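Here is one chain, start to finish.
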Amino acid sequence: MKSPILGLIFDLDGTLLDTAEDLCDSVNVAMELNGLPTFSVDDIKRMVGNGIKNLITQSLPNDSDEKRIEFVLKQFKTDYASRYMNKSHPYKGILATLNQLQKKQIKLSVVSNKMDDYTQTMIKHYFPQLNFIFVSGELEGVNRKPDPTLTLKALETMELTHQQVLYVGDTRVDMQTAHNAGLKAVGVTWGFRSQKELEDHHADFIIHTPKELISLL
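Its structure:
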């Protein structure tokens, strides 16, 4: 007999929250401080997903050494700390869908490659009425997604089986994370990447609006 879906693990940036403009603004501040070309929001959407160090590495010239990467990363962090909730906001329909899921007693968790302190703060700020069972961003000493470590920790905390939980995200990293953890992957098309990327990385389901999660369950 097929197990019912009793839990969902979400990515954050590009899935629950549209954070692209704040990320773009802080990247561009760092670029301008170093006399480098700036980026569009669409550029940033293609570059995020593997943590902020990776974002900065992609933003710099290919010959940049570790010292330069760390220097510019520090500049980015300083600026982002003061603006990370300036323009960021939940995607249309996300709040209503999450509330409906909670009323249905679906357990909710978040596993993100965003730095953990920002992840914790943003979840509390934008979703204060929701009871997330497990929330984690990138932690020092723990491999980030697509490594399944934190996703498996979420599963354990939720006290559910692999068959009872779906992972929901917007990038190839999320699809890989789900499958590495032994979960079915739900790709969302309202985020930072294309439907083709989700298909190419074997999304088990693809949805176009948050409310489709309800019918998917």
